[in-house]
Structures are given as C-alpha cells and as structure tokens.
Request: fold
Amino acid sequence: MGNVRWSMALSVIIATGAVTLVCLTLYTAFFGVFPDGIQRSAHLLLVMVLVFVTALQRTLDPDFGTQHRLTRIISTLWIIFALIGTAVATGHQLFNFDAINDRYGSITQYEILFGAILVIVLFDACRRTIGWPIVLLAGMFLLYGLLGAYLPDPLGHRGYSLKRVASQVYLGGGGIFGTPLGVSATFVTGVVVLGALLEKTGAGQVLMDFATAMTGRMRGGPAKAAVVGSSLMGMISGTAVANVLTTGPISIPLMRKSGYRKEAAGAIEAVASTGGQLMPPVMGAAAFIMAEFTETSYLVIAKAAFLPAVIFYAVLLAMVHFEAAKRNIPILRDADSVTDWGSILKHSYLLLPLPVFVSMLLNGYSIMLSSFWAIVASVLVSYLDKATALSPRRMVETCITAAHAVIPVAVACAAAGVIIGIITLTGVGLKFSTLVVALSGGSLPLALVLTMLTCLILGMGLPTAAAYILVATLVAPALVDLGVSLLAAHLFVLYSAMLSSITPPVALAAYAAASIAQGNPLKIAVLACQFGMAAFAVPYFFVYDPAILGLDVTWVQIIMSFVTAIVGGICASAAMMGHFTGRLNIIERLVFGVIAILFMNSDWRIDLVAFVLLGVIGFWTARRANPLAETENKPGSNPGDTIHMGDIK
Reply:
C-alpha cells in the first residue's frame, strides 16, 4: 500500500510539472519570453524533473526489481541524487542569472562541480528517453574537448582545461543552455501543445478519415491513405515516431488486410511518417532550429520546404502505386477502407486551429503567438460538441501528453548544446567542413554524397532535431563553401538527417512501425530504405535546381522545376521498383534511372531531352505491357477491377 500511495503522489507531481511547463510556455507566448538564462533553465528544470519523477514512479512499480531489492534501492537513490543535482545546477542558473552574466563567463570552482553534475544527469535523462547514441556522441565530443591536444592534425587542437570546457558547456548561451534548448523552450513546446490538443479533440482522426476516404477506392488504397494521412498528420505532429504511433494503428492493419506483407506495411508507414517532419505549417522541431541557425524567418523556411515536401510524398505515392501494381494488390470495397464524407464534414470544425495558425504566420505574427491563439481556438471549438469538449481532466491529460512529447526534444537539444559548445570551442566544425571539401576534390556531386552519408551516420538513433543540429554545424558549411545557397544547404542536411529515421541499423521510425506491424524491425528498416530510395534523391533536385524552393524566381520557373522534379522522382521510383505500366527489365530500369538523373538540373534543354526519352520508353513499356487476351477475364487483372473481401484467398 505504501508504494501505491507514493505512486499516486508522484502522479500528482508529474501532472503538476506538465501543467506548469505548458502554462509557462503559454504565458511567455502571450506576454513575452524571459531572459534566455531564465527561460531555458526553467524549461530544462521542469523537463528533467518530469524525466526523473517518472523514472522514480517506475522504480516503485511492484514489477520493477522484485527479485533484486538492491537494484531497486540503488536506482531510487540515484534518481533522488539526479533530482537534487538537477534542481541545484539549473536552479543556480535560474536564480543567479544576473550575477553569472556580470562575470562574462568566468567560472567558479563550485560551478565546475555544478556543470559536471548537470552533464551527468542530463546524459542519464537522454539514456532514459532517447537511448544511448546521443549520450555516446556527446561524450565523445566532451573527451575531444579535453584530450584533443593529443590527436594528430588536422583534428587536433591546442587543448582545453576542465575549467574552460565546463565554462563553455555550463555557463552562457553556447552550451547546454544554448540556442537549441532555447528553441525547445519557446517555439517547440507551443507547437507540441497545439498538436496534443488537436489529437485530444479528434482533429487527427478527422485528417486520417479524410486520407482514407480519398484513397479507399484506389489500388493499394490503404497504403496511399498512410502516405496522405502521415503528410496531413505532419501538420500537427512533426516527429516521425509520433506520426507512426498515431497513423500506424489505423493504416498498417488496413494495408495488411488489403494484401501487403507486414514488413512492407510497416516500411511504408515508417517512410510516410518520416516525411511528415517536412510538411508545413508545423513541420518538426528542426525547422524552428533552422530558423535560428540561418537567421531566416520560419515562414520563409516553411514556404521553401512546401514544394520539396509535396515532391517527397508524390514520389512515395508512386513507389506505393508501383508496389501495388507489381503485386496485383486488389481494390477493396470495404467499410473499413472507405469513410463517409458526411462524418468528415461534420467534424471538420476541429481543424479550425490550423488555418488560425497559418493565417497568423502569414500576417507576420511570431510562431509563439500564432501557436497560442491556435491553442485558444482548439480549446474553444472543442466545446461545439459534447463528445469533444475539453473538461479540466482532459486538459490535464493533454498537458501530460504534450510534456512527454516535449521531453525527448528538450533533452536532445540540451545534449546537442554540449556538442555545439565543444565544436565552437575547438573549431572542429570548420576542420570537418574543410575535410569534406578536400575529400570531394571540390566536386559538388561527390560533396553532396559525402554529406548525405555523414548525415545518415551521425543521425542514427537521434531525433531529427538533434541530428540536424549536429550536421548543420559540421557539414552544412562545406556545401555553402561549394556554392550552395545557405537555405538549400541546410534543407539538404535536414532531409538527410531526417532520413536517418529509416536507415539501418538504428531506424527509430522503422522500429516504431515494427511494434505495430509485428514484423522484423531490421527487415522493415531495409524495406523502408527501398520505398524511400527515390525520396533520397529529392534533396539533390533542389540543390541543383533551387527554383523548387521558390526563392527569388518567377512562377514559371517554380512550376517547371516542380513538375520536372516530380516526374524525375517518379522515374526514379519506376527504376527502383522495376515497374511502370508493367514490369521492367534491367535495361528499362537503367533508362528510367538515367532519365531521373537528367531531370536533376535547371537547364530546360536537358529537361526536354529527358521528356523525349520518357515518352519513348513510356510508349514502349505501355505497348509491351498490354494485357493478353487470356488474362483479360481474370479477376484483378485489370487495374480498374474491384475485388471484394470475399474474393481474397
């Protein structure tokens, strides 16, 4: 009974912390943010308390350590130490902000101790919430800062003392309490709260119903619903794993029912959910961090990301369609796959906060204020129907959901701040960029490939926001040095870091999908790379043809670049899947691959050649793929045939 009472008390603390975190965000969104040190330290304090109180609650669970009493005691003592250490280290920043600023980075002996404690408990929080990869990576950078003097050139540096490293990492705005944590404490939390509210009121289900209704009567409809639904969910979620866990329970069973293999169903959902991080207006946390890094308006970034996001999903839809056609997956006329439009329209009012958010952004209001009024709109419209009304209990539940969604982003941003602090201190970012340029021999195509590989490797196991922070600091400057525009370079590394969510061996989105599809996680990750392979080409399109980003060009150029990018992506999909109007042989696949490469440019004459080649190969494959007389009467042999559930064996 004692453990039960403690668990209930801890639940109250968690709820109180979550509500406080949300209220702090809403207060500062409306009245203005506090000074950086205060805002960020308060944010991190609340997040870390939530992490360790939740961990303490699990430790007191009867199922934890029942056979190892010593393990329970040690875990409890460590968590209590972590809570006290967090409170002291962040509280010192919070309450002595002015005094610290007056010393201009000069650090005292006890602050060195506070910094060391905060790094240790932060790494433990990261381990508990997002796994070991970012802990190991940040730890390597810390060791590099301390021991880099013993490394050979070009990576070696003059060496820094523990005092200097602690000052860089703990004090000021260049380490743990740097820009990434500031973005989490302001922009990200407000948008996450909005997403949690939209989910709680049922707006997410409306979007998924809309996607299912749009695609329910198409070949491979459930898979296409997953693609469309994830793109729409990206507007209110912004993280790959959250997208998978939201749309996956609906789309994956539908795909399995329609004939997709469980691994293929999981892979399609993983890729579709990964791309949701690029879909304006919300996008992912990385987009807000990019706005800070590039000193560019978030609205400009959202505009630039819109067409690439559409291209990503158009190419993925092509991949899904070719897979369905190649495997002759039938069209299902089933109540589960077709939604009543009347029901969707009846509940469409729940989506009102989205146009409120977008319209305020378009009118020049800040992201924080836009999300604040969108949250207010979401709460108000929920009361239009008793079933969706947000009672005080449901509001608290929403705050808890939002807080748990913020936690991984916040701790990842804080840990990424450690990495950035060391990069800034040692100058290794410039060295790394110089190394990429040297290895590529000044060749942009080779530099892009090296950059993408670096992003995929560094991003393994990391949330997209943390992965982007790392690669934007290390490798984006190399692309800028080679003549790529600043925004295109950062979008390229964001795309590449994002795709690490489906890249083996650590593919977070694929693992999340595997838990729903009950398939092999590694097989799902490999298939996700196959379905996403054509999407891997999308960043190259806007580097070589920046008109896709819609910046400082005419509408004619934008339309031409958009069309050629989509057509090129579809050609890449055909080459990858081995299917167009029918099955393709190896020569035809190579031709489609060449055509896709030709479309990666901004020269209309090369595009014209590509269109001519596409017309020729398209005519050839269409003529060869005409159905034979003996197959015309087979059920499902015609793409327009509809097969009922009872016809499937």
The CA atoms of residues 479 and 624 lie 44 Å apart. The beta strands are 331-332, 642-643. Residues 548-625 form one domain. The longest helix spans residues 392-426.
